[in-house]
Amino acid sequence: RELLRQSSMTEPPPSLDSATSHPLWSEIERVTKEQVHYASLGVGEGGWQLFAEEGDMKMYRREEELNGLVIDPLKACHIVKGVTGREMCHYFFSPQYRKDWETTLEQMTVVEKISDNILVFLQVHKRVWPTAQRDALFWSHTTHMTDPKDHDGHDIWAVVNHSTQLPQYPQKSNKCVRVALTVCLYCQTLITPPKDGAQVSRDDITCKITYCAVVNPGGWVPASALRALYKREYPKFLKRFTAYVITQTKDKSIMF
Ligand code: 6CM
After folding, report:
1. For residue 103, how far is its CA from the centre of ligand 1 (angstroms)?
2. For residue 4, is pLDDT > 80?
3. What's the whole-model pTM score?
4. Which residue in 16, 180, 221, 237 could disulfide with 12, CB within 3.0 to 4.6 Å?
C-alpha cells in the first residue's frame, strides 16, 4: 500500500535531474521509500522495548544479532517545539553543521555530490577503547513528500543515510573497521494557527520526529559494551541535535 506519495518520484524537481541518471539512483529511491514507510509506522507492534525516556523523548530498541554482532534496531520518537521538519532535516543533512552536533566524529569528508539533496559522506568516528576505530561511507538523501493525513498541505521531511561502497575508499584500511548503517530522520510539522488570524510564529509550531537506526559494527565488539554505548550515546545525540536546531533557528524566519 502506497502510504506516502513521494513528490520526488512523480515530478523530479530540477535539482534531481543529475541524480536520476546516477548508478545509485534506483537504490536511493528504493531505500528512501522503504525507510520513510518504516519510520511512519508506530512502535505498538514489532516487539519494541523502551530503553530510555526523558521528557517527550522515547527510545525503543529490539535486541538483534547477526553472525554474533549486535545490530539492535533503534526507533526514537521526540516532540520538539518551535522548529519545522524542514529545518530539522536541513541541519541533519548539511555537512557544514555536522561537527557542531555529532560528538562521535573525528573527521568528515563529502566524497561525492550526486545532487543538491544527495551527498556521499566518508566519516571517521572516534575510537572507543579497546575496540578498533570505525569509519562509515554512506549516501545521504534529504527529501519531502505530501502527508495524506495533513489537510493543510504540510509536507513530511526526511533524511535517509545508507551505507555504500566506492573503489576509491576501500573497506580495508589498516586503521578502521567499516560500519554499515541505515538511518532515517522523519519529521512532521504540526501547526496551531493563531486564533486572531495573525502570522504563524515559532510558538505555534511543533515538530514530531521519528529517528530510526540500524548499525552493524562491522567487526567484533563485546555485545554488552556496545549496548551500553548505544544506551548512552543515542539519547545524548537526539537531545544535543534537537537543542542545536532550536538554538540555530530561534532568531531566524521560519523555513516551512
Ligand atoms: O545519525 C547520526 N549521525 C549521522 C551523521 O553522522 C549518521 C551517522 C551514523 C554513524 C553511526 C556509527 C557510529 C559509530 C559507532 C562506533 C562503534 C564502536 C564500537 C565501540 C564499542 C564499545 O547517520 C547520529 C548517530 C548517533 C550514534 C550514537
Report:
1. 9
2. no
3. 0.92
4. 16
